[in-house]
Write a structure and sequence with these properties.
- It contains 8 helices and 10 strands.
- The protein has 267 residues and is of the alpha/beta class.
- The strands form 3 sheets. It has a 5-stranded mixed sheet, with helices on both faces. A 3-stranded antiparallel sheet has the order 2-3-4, with helices on one face. Strands 1-5 form a two-stranded parallel sheet.
- Strand 7 and strand 8 form a beta hairpin.
- Helix 1 packs across helix 2.
- It starts with a helix and ends in an 8-residue tail after the last helix.
- The structure holds zinc ion (ZN).
- Zinc ion (ZN) binds next to loops.
Length: 267
């Protein structure tokens, strides 16, 4: 993976019409538990990594500073620098796609927690003894509401498999089953999101991740259930996601790193 990233850089430079010497730093967003100050991927169940000195290894290949963070945190950093976070000091950044996460920005800073494991909404137990999650535990929210769950649910209810694109076009055509699956997932996500609101009282929640493509079919039940289960504040829920948002998140890590004098790059 690290070699692939290093090998991609000359091609990206050519596409952008830039020279190698113009690179000031590289940001990489990774699904997992990341220690951004040390540039270490503590674990990434999706990639099977543990205690990988990712930033140092990549920096040794590319000879520029490297910043890494969890992919949802990277989305939140991008929102803080370029999105809704410009106007809000306390907000939550919910992402729904292959996984589910909800990063918290408190007083303008990403809250990483004591072990770089804050914001892991997707690994909150949602169904006791439920489906196997990629983390190895059972019943996590993301095992019952992420995109792979949606596709599996379609398969188990119809007996035929469906690709993500096919599912997306079923949603667009307002297929009853697809809408029902999204409604169930949105309701489940919204109920746990309400807990986040009750604990952290964010000013606003921005939603990203590939599943934002499913639009109101997913967002309306998330919003409705969140409002139903929050006891006092009812923060606005806004969607902000384009296909390049993951890349923008990674770029935001480097931007933040370069302009944040309190943090040193790894490598
Ligand atoms: Zn899990």
């Amino acid at each position: 993976m690290i070699q692939s990233i290093a090998a991609t850089i000359p091609r990206l430079l050519a596409q952008a019409g830039r020279q190698e010497g113009e690179i000031r730093g590289i940001g990489v967003s990774i699904p997992g538990e990341i220690d951004p100050s040390k540039g270490i991927c503590l674990q990434s169940p999706r990639f099977g990594w543990k205690n990988l000195a990712f930033a140092e290894l990549l920096a040794a290949s590319v000879h520029v500073p490297v910043w890494i963070d969890d992919d949802v945190n990277a989305f939140a950093v991008a929102q803080r620098l370029f999105g809704v976070g410009r106007d809000h000091h306390n907000f939550a950044a919910l992402a729904v796609g292959a996984g589910i996460g909800c990063s918290l920005v408190i007083k303008g800073e990403i809250y990483h927690g004591s072990h770089s494991a804050a914001g892991k909404l997707g690994h909150i137990t949602s169904v006791a003894n439920g489906r196997l999650c990629e983390c190895g535990r059972h019943g996590c929210l993301m095992a019952h509401a992420s995109e792979s769950y949606m596709l599996n649910e379609w398969q188990s209810r119809t007996g035929s498999s469906i690709s993500r694109d096919e599912f997306a076009s079923c949603v667009e055509q307002k297929d009853h089953l697809a809408l029902s699956i999204l409604s169930d997932c949105g309701t489940r996500i919204g109920s746990h999101l309400a807990d986040v609101v009750n604990l952290f009282d964010p000013e606003i929640i921005v939603v990203g991740g590939e599943a934002v493509q499913f639009g109101d079919a997913l967002l309306v039940p998330i919003r409705k259930t969140m409002v139903e289960f929050t006891f006092f504040s009812k923060p606005e829920l806004v969607a902000d996601w384009v296909p390049s948002s993951r890349a923008r998140g990674a770029a935001a890590l480097a931007t933040q790193g370069i302009f944040d004098f309190e943090r040193e790059p790894s490598g």
